[in-house]
Here is the input.
Amino acid sequence: MVMGCLFCKIVALEIPADIVAESELSVAFNDISPQAPTHVLIVPKVHFQNAAELAYEQPDSIADLFQLAGEIAESRGLSGYRTVFNTGAEAGQSVFHAHLHLLGGRSLSWPPG
Ligand code: 5GP
Ligand code: ZN
Here is the structure.
């Protein structure tokens, strides 16, 4: 756990979140500011700054995040969905604990802004 990290605190249940799924390695909870009818954040239980760091340090966790995303999407009957990692402030990352956005339930335009 990293001091001051919002998502470490959510994983540790120190800050409330609407948890929708969990696996051995990951926790999934609703985004507080949803950008689509389904907007779930799927985070590794262990703190890594971004997706690349996670991939180097705990590669099984990357697979686990996408498996949980697929299970949530299937359980909700989503016909399509988008999975996104923002890396770095310029790309919109605001919480520096790696997290996979799962977005769905509406049509999504491309390219993203
Ligand atoms: P990022 O911008 O880093 O890719 O994504 C961070 C996400 O965390 C944003 O979509 C933001 O709405 C969400 N978020 C920020 N603070 C909280 C919070 O306290 N609880 C929850 N559930 N989501 C949060
Ligand atoms: Zn953290």
About this structure: The chain has a mean pLDDT of 97. The longest strand covers residues 38-44. Residues 6, 17, 29-33, 41, 86, 92-95 surround guanosine-5'-monophosphate (ligand 1) (CB under 6 Å).
